[in-house]
Amino acid sequence: MPFEIFIALRYLREARFQTFLILAAVSVGVGVVVFLSALINGLQENLLATTLGSQPHVIITRVEAPPRVLPDPQRVVAALVEQPPARELILHDWTNVQRDVRSVPGVVAVSAVASGPGLAARGAASKTIAIRGIIPEDYDQIVKISSKLKAGRFTLSGDQVLIGVELARDLGIGVGEKFRIETSSSQAATFSIAGIFDLGNKDVNRRWVLTSLRVGQTLLDMPGGVTSLEVRTDDVFAADEIAGMIAARTGLQSDSWIKLNKQLMTGLKSQSSSRYIIEFFVVIAVALGIASVLLVAVVQKSKEIGIMRAFGTSDRQVIGVFLLQGAILGTLGSFGGSLLGAVLAFGFRSLAKNPDGAPTFPVAVTVGLLASTALIAISVGIASAAFPAWRATQLDPATVIRYG
Asked: Can you list the residues of the chain whose pLDDT is less than 50?
């Protein structure tokens, strides 16, 4: 066994009570970091899943022209402001745009959508709806409708449509039953319910009616065109950057979910900032604890250190002894703390549950989180031992042997 390791383990064994206390402190500190990180990461992941469960990462539309100002010939000081017609916002060359967007780095999937308002009616019940004509296999890569079905099948062939659970409840219909859709373009048709979905958003569940793209184009009177292209990216937090690349390549308006949900992004950043602040103070407390224990060890073992140096032990070896003690304390504390943090996280998740049985506070304990926390603990242990190690090299052998 190397000399430095032998001496480091001996010092830790001889001061068992101090070693136990500092290991307990490191374990608690690491456990707190793991627990808080797992809780905040779980909340953020759940919030993002809820928000993006019915929303693409990037939405591409035609650039909206500014309102037209029409002079009023009857008045000198007044003008008429006219919004451009909605038809000018339709993408007719969407297939070429879709091909270009798919070649942008970071883009995972692109789906064309023909959307617009309509009215759903069955008997005396009627509800305003949002018609969304889609290509099922493309759109399912953007919003996982197929995995959100509560009843029926994921198919949009012929006159079949998919509706949300809230709309089905409002109209009093189920799978296989029929209802009528009318639009402002004087188009109307009867459709059959192929499936009922639940995207976790009450407004979406109450308003969305998914049809095939061709049916949507017919109902909304936009033959061959679409209102938008919706994009999924490989990194949700890179959506802003990818949206910029798409806009530069296509010349179309490209809005990321980050731009459309600024308040959500602010909340996520605030949560992350609070976690980092807590972790910082926990790390400082752990570092001070390790440093103080090792400084006491320098004082207690000053005579032994002086004797070792008098017999030719180098400064490098003395420094190695104390750095190894810090590394050992950090390593053992990280293992104990990771276990403690995981137990706290999963225990907390099992105690707090919603009426449907889902955890009120989801947690995300990952290998990456445990590994990064352990690395921080070990690094802090070594860094905390640096000053005591330096202090040990400054001891004068003759002085500490005579007066120690």
From this structure: 76, 83
Cite the beta strand spans of 123-187 per DSSP E.
Answer: 125-134, 149-152, 160-164, 178-182
Tokens of 279: 């972790």
Confidence at residue 167, expressed as pLDDT on a 0 to 100 scale: 95
| pTM of the model as a whole | 0.70
Residue 298 tokens, joined:
């320098």
Provide the phi-psi class of 149: left if phi over 0, else alpha when psi is between -120 and 50, else beta: beta
Q: Which two tokens stand for residue 227?
A: 């209102």
Identify the H or E element spanning 224: none
For residue 263, CA distances in Å to 225, 257, 258, 269, 304 come to 33, 11, 9, 10, 61
- Kindly list the distances between the CA atom of residue 270 and the CA atoms of 16, 277, 284, in Å, as whole numbers in the listed order: 42, 11, 21
3-state helix, strand, coil in the chain (%, to 5): 55, 20, 25
Q: By CB neighbour count within 10 A (0-12 exposed, 13-18 middle, 19+ buried), where does 265 fall?
A: middle
